[in-house]
Specification:
This is SSF1 protein. It is found in: Nucleus, Nucleolus. InterPro entries: Brix, PPAN-like. This protein is α+β, with helices and mostly antiparallel strands. The chain is built from 4 helices and 3 strands. It is elongated, with a radius of gyration of 20 Å. The chain starts with a helix and ends with a helix.
Length: 118
C-alpha cells in the first residue's frame, strides 16, 4: 500500500514542502530491527547504509529537516515507512521574541521601545 505525494499534499491543511527540506539527508529511525534473524539484520544494515551516519556531537539541528521512521512488524513481516517534516521552533519564550528568532519581523509601529515587544 502506498500514497502518491499529490494525495498526501491535498489532504493536508497546511503543507510545508520546500526545496530546503531535501538538501540534507533525513534522520533515520529504525524500530523493531533488534531481532537476531539474519534477514532482519540485513534489512537494518541496508537502511543504515542508504543514509550517512550522524555524529550527535557535531550535528547542526537546524540542518535536520526530515525524519524517516521505518518500523518492522514481526507478525506480518511488513515494513512501515513514515516520512516526517521536522521544524525547529523556540520554546519557552514570548511571542514577540519567537517571531524575531524565526526571522519574522513584527509590526513595531505600536511600540515605543523594543522591550515592549519582548
Amino acid at each position: 500500500q502506498y500514497s502518491l505525494i499529490k494525495d498526501v499534499v491535498s489532504s493536508l491543511k497546511r503543507h510545508r514542502m520546500h526545496e530546503q527540506q531535501f538538501t540534507h539527508h533525513p534522520l533515520l529511525v529504525l524500530s523493531n530491527f533488534g531481532l537476531q534473524q539474519i534477514q532482519v539484520k540485513l534489512m537494518a544494515s541496508m537502511f543504515q547504509n542508504m543514509f550517512p551516519s550522524i555524529n550527535v556531537h557535531r550535528v547542526n539541528l537546524n540542518n535536520i529537516k526530515r525524519c524517516l521512521l521505518i518500523t518492522y512488524n514481526t507478525e506480518t513481516q511488513l515494513l512501515d515507512f513514515r516520512h516526517y517534516s521536522v521544524k525547529v521552533v523556540p520554546v519557552g519564550v514570548s511571542k514577540g521574541l519567537k517571531k524575531l528568532l524565526q526571522e519574522k519581523f513584527p509590526n513595531m509601529s505600536r511600540f515605543e521601545d523594543i522591550s515592549e515587544l519582548l
